[in-house]
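Researcher: Going back to the complex we discussed earlier. I've cleaned up the inputs and rechecked each line, so this should be the final set. Can you rerun the prediction on the complete assembly and write out the structure?
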Amino acid sequence: MRYRKALAGFSIAVLWALASPHAVAQSGTVRIAWVDPQSGMMAAVGQNALRSWQHAVDAANQGKWGGNVRFELVPFDNKLSPQETLTVLKSVVDRDIRYVALGLGTSTALALSDAVAKHNQRNPGKEIVFVNYAAVDPSMTNEKCDFWHFRIDINSDMKMEALTTFMAGRPEIRKVYLINQDYAFGHSVERGAEEYLKKKRPDIAIVGKDRHPLAQVRDFAPYVAKIKASGADTIITGNWGSDLALLVKAARDAGLTAGFYTYYAGTTGTPTAIGAAGEGKVRQVSYWNPSDPVPEGAKCIEGFERKYKDDYAILASYTAMKLLSEAMKKAKSTDAKQVAFALEGLKVQSLNGEVEMRASDHQLQQPVFISSWQKVDGKTVRYGQENTGYGWRTEARLDAYVASQPTSCDMKRPAK
Amino acid sequence: MEFVVISLLNGISYGLLLFMLASGFTLIFSMMGVLNFAHASFYMLGAYFGYQISTWLGFWPALFVAPLLVGAAGALVERYGLRRVHKSGHVPELLFTFGLSYIIVELVQIVWGRAAVPYQVPPELQGPLFTVFTTTFPAYRAFMMLIAVLMLVAIWLMLTRTRIGLVIQASLTHPGMAEALGHNVPRVYMLTFGGGTALAGLAGVIGGNAYVTEPSMAALVGAIIFVVTVVGGMGSLAGAFVASLLIGLMQTFAIGLDWSPVGLLGRLGIEITPETFLYALWSLKLSQVAPVLPYLLLVMILVFRPRGLMGTREG
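Model: Rerun complete. Updated structure for the full complex:
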């Protein structure tokens, strides 16, 4: 008798589950595939990013951000290669994972966005959402925008707009040198710098432009000799990872005194290369300042340091988990398509203030910070990076609506 | 002027490092006829051994111990691997070293991981040595040059002034005769292979912290060593020296020069605009094609002077 009752109960539960998949789907485990380099020259940055993601996922699970939804991170190594990324996507599909996070390298991001769009078109009901946490080529939220792609970082043009506005107010800048990685992202930095500087400070001369292969150069001394010969007083670079760390190291070795305006001086390896020699000379434009966070951010940073003996540098992981959790609650589902719709126009609180996922192009709207490399003083620079005793002092903060840029995206949405 | 002097110094220091690699490669080739595909892997082993030993004992012991270990590994490879394969001819030898290079890379990844290791320049050698106009020249680069030159002199003295050098030279050209005179030629082979790989290991110890120590470092220099050896002439030590410096300087200067066909034709009065046919090709700057230049040189040399700059053999 008892057994029968249990069986009946079980059957009802199963029937109910089958009848309303969304109601059940909101609990359970959501897996997120993390796809980025864990080998080669950019492995150090990749490992730091993976830790940042794991940290954010743990925080989301502990704080029950998504209600009953638990998150699980599944890391894959794409070796910074678009080809490998597509291979990885196949195994992501095979393992039935519906959320993919990738950020390091516009080359891999463009390949993934394209492949995800095709996959989703051909496999209705098995859609995949692409969470882009760091690839910043503007085209991905403009002419190449896609419904399944969401960018958590600020794009290259937003960064350059803020950076050049800041530079316009500094009369000591007269001669600028542009050095960038030779791929889509590096080209967009170069183009942006030329365009905006011409508008805002036509008197600044661009004395040199260089493009070097991505993640292959081991010795930047020849480039530094060239920069020196050009007489530049300022360098603008979108370089990241080893390409920036080695560039800064070569500049220091050669005694180059020019100032650096960078996108990624806070990423793994570079703070060590800057060291004491770069005090006040290196600046970065980013979406927050880890050296001077809000109290909630301090908790996150300290927890990360204790656990990994590393710097929490990639806030986008935190923001992404906030967004995904909220979207799942809002959609009352973990189904990728419904979550994607719920993400549009969603506002959440992250560690850099309130952010909004703009519906028209899926570019996250958030504030922009410009900070310079200074000694830790406990007040404006609270946390150092990589045990150098130096960190970032905020010199300018642009609110999200100021940093916002128009988009040319013509978003094609699937039927709901 | 400042640019020229600094680029000269940078080019020479890079060229000398290349020579440390190419010299061992050339020695092994000219003596044993073995194209050692795994040579760059021994360079990488040197860097990783250097890193590991310097974390235990410091950099200076590592500078001596790591090359010896790499040389011992090389000698073992010759004694128990190559010597057996030798009987079957040159192609199996080539395939053997080719396979070996992959095994070494995998082993390195298993032991030290796939990311770069934090192999640092020792504090004594950090900082600038002297200033050229306004540019400082790092002490460590000068140290690299010094080691390379010392090694060059030592090899030259050993090959020409010592008894073992004479035996090596004799076995190089007349192995049968040397053996008939009572010299243990196989052991000479083992010593040469061990010595050549030890040189590569030494280059790894001092190159690993100047550049980056990570698993793809072998593949990157591996191709360049071939270029150096072919350009200099297979089996010619002097040729390898000239070619190393040539390629070191070429790569350094090419990066510094923004010459492009557009600029050149512009001076001749031919206007080229983005609308011109094949503009992407015309606007390529020398600095952008710098990484390809050594290979271009390789092809040119093979076409116009197959025996290389100073080679004695034909083809």
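Model: Worth noting: The first helix of chain B runs from residue 2 to 32.
Researcher: Good, that matches what I expected from the previous run.
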